[in-house]
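Hey, resending since the last one bounced:
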Amino acid sequence: MASARHRLLSRYLEAANTIAADWPRAKTGGGNGVPRRTEDIQASDTETDVEIDATQRLLRRQAALLASAQQHRLAEGGTSQADGVDEELLERRLADVASTATGKFYAYRYDSVPYQWRCLYTDALILSTHLHVLRSLSAHGCLGSDALDRVVETLDRALIVTGGASERLGAAWIEKTMQNLEVLCEAQERQEEEEEETGEPSAKRLKTTGGTRAPAAADHARTFSTHEPHGRPAMRADKQCPRHRGWTLDRFEAYMDQESGGEPWPVVFTDLIDDWPALTDRPWNRPAYLLSKTFGGRRLVPVEVGRSYVDEGWTQDLVPFGRFLAEHVDASLSGRPVGYLAQHDLFR
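The structure tokens again:
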């Protein structure tokens, strides 16, 4: 587990030092390969430039303080804060940068938000997760449940809200960090299991959640219910389409050209997707599989709540995937509002 922890902290330290560097602001594009649009360049050439520059300087100072705090904590091997680094104030300043950038998202049309504000939002959220990781690992030797959930949610929020826009790090950095977090979480769970077997649990270390732990055999095999709560509309027997399986292309052509007498009736083939990966080695009908692909259900997803966007009370929200399954997919629920997973790249 020590190596996984070291890799994660080293990655965060490098990111903090990168953000802290006094680099000139890019004029043609971001570090994640997203080109700067004409609207962005025009906006940065106005008085907005002054506010952006001031906010960038503020963020760079927080990044430098955070790097100093990590180096001090690692050198001391304890939980004491570095001299001259007020971590509570540091946390508030990072929240201020993210809040300021969020305000700009509503001050412009969605496709005209200056690129630098999206970068500032992403980098501020990355640094805030760095602080949470550093505190938890320093205090407990592991990422506790609350810290892990918060870190994953915050990084995902940066991906969803800005696409991970950054002149220095970007979406690829966030996804790689998510992988490092999963490796660390798995290492922590293995250590917990070993301690349970030996009866020597660490007094300092917090328990991690069971969200990513391998499910029991019964849970792993469980599938979603096929019950349709709203049923299907009744259909007269003479209007129902015939259902077939095992047809070859020749058999289908014979049906279309000869057997139908020139008026083929619609046919339902019941076996055409039997070998789809989503039904075989990547079973989407099993909650355990979907949770395993979303960091134990921690990854954020956009959800639309309500049967239709024109309905009263229809809303959109970002929620952990596990919560979406529990609140909107579990067949045992009753009286819950209809919720849909919006267009989203679930398996990155």
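Strands lie at 243-244, 268-269, 300-305, 315-320, 339-341.

Sorry for the duplicate.
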